[in-house]
Design brief:
single chain, mainly beta, OB fold (Dihydrolipoamide Acetyltransferase, E2P)
């Protein structure tokens, strides 16, 4: 195994809407959408991430997504996806 650059694009493999309010870093955002993305570079190359709640009405299995990076402050930058 090795690290290689990827495009940051993929499709929603599965998702769930989380209503739990005590997830560190997401306390003020519940409910939020937790997604599993299958990256375009390889079948079954999966990544678990977050989809902003504003995208909740658009999410469905097979939706096309792309990554962006959100700065949460104090040196924490997280990858999230948006539907394209």
């Amino acid at each position: 195994m090795s690290f290689v650059p990827v495009s940051g694009r993929g499709t929603v493999y599965t998702f769930t809407v989380m209503h739990q309010r005590d997830v560190a870093g997401f306390e003020d955002e519940a409910p939020f959408v937790n997604i599993v993305v299958e990256l375009v570079e390889q079948s079954q190359l999966l990544m678990v991430s977050n989809l902003p709640i504003a995208e909740r009405s658009k999410v469905k299995i097979g939706a096309t997504v792309e990554v962006y990076f959100e700065d949460r402050g104090e040196g924490l930058v997280i990858p999230q996806f948006r539907i394209i």
